[in-house]
């Protein structure tokens, strides 16, 4: 599995510290040309199936997505439909319907990182990707982290043929198009809803960033649906 080896740990008085194997590397995506995507997805593909997931203490991704999937309804119930992009307003029924399927789409028994961004990945000198920083680990469908990383590429403006990657990388073998749509819709609706909430203390830029994420997700989903006609 492409994660640093746990060397030791400390857990006392509500403080936890982990000692991990040091990875001499760099974050992927610096060239913004998509050249590191394959290595990162290869790393996510090494994540194992979790034996007895209900006894391991890790949350189910399918449960965690519930709040995200209700994001479109939250925005509409708040009377904020006018703040949504025109394509979203025209497609809101389809977006709600797709998002409602996200929980089923994400069901699975594989270990997942669930914060799969470039800043949580290191590429070593041999070009192998290592996944670091694991506070949000959960259990779900094998391909979840891979899709989230492609989403991060689009948010950061990296030049990646995301649809080509979905068709060609083994991590996504057998994943239905509808499952990808469901997750993208749920995420985008969740980010739109969160972007309208008051900013948390000491994080004044979070809501603007969540709006950026929402727009990136919608752009990807719009491209996918328009390509299907």
Automatic annotation (TrEMBL):
It comes from the Bacteria. Residues 12-160 form the Aminoglycoside phosphotransferase domain. This is Aminoglycoside phosphotransferase domain-containing protein. It comes from Frondihabitans sucicola.
């Amino acid at each position: 599995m492409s994660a640093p080896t746990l060397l030791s740990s400390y857990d006392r008085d509500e403080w936890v510290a982990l000692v991990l194997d040091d990875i001499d590397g760099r974050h992927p995506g610096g060239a913004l040309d998509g050249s590191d995507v394959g290595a990162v997805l290869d790393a996510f593909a090494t994540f194992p199936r979790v034996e007895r997931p209900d006894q391991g203490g890790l949350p189910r991704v399918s449960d965690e997505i519930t709040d995200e999937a209700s994001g479109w309804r939250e925005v509409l119930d708040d009377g904020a439909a006018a703040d949504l992009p025109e394509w979203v307003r025209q497609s809101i029924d389809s977006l709600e319907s797709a998002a409602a399927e996200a929980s089923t789409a994400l069901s699975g028994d594989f270990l997942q990182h669930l914060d799969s961004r470039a800043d949580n990945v290191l590429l070593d000198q041999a070009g192998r990707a290592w996944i670091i920083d694991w506070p949000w680990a959960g259990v779900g469908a094998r391909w979840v982290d891979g899709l989230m990383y492609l989403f991060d590429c689009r948010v950061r403006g990296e030049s990646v043929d995301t649809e080509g990657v979905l068709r060609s990388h083994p991590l996504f073998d057998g994943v239905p198009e509808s499952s990808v749509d469901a997750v993208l819709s749920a995420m985008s609706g969740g980010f739109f809803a969160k972007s309208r909430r008051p900013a948390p203390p000491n994080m004044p830029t979070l809501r603007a960033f969540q709006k950026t994420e929402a727009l990136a997700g919608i752009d990807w989903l719009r491209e996918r649906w328009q390509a299907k006609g």
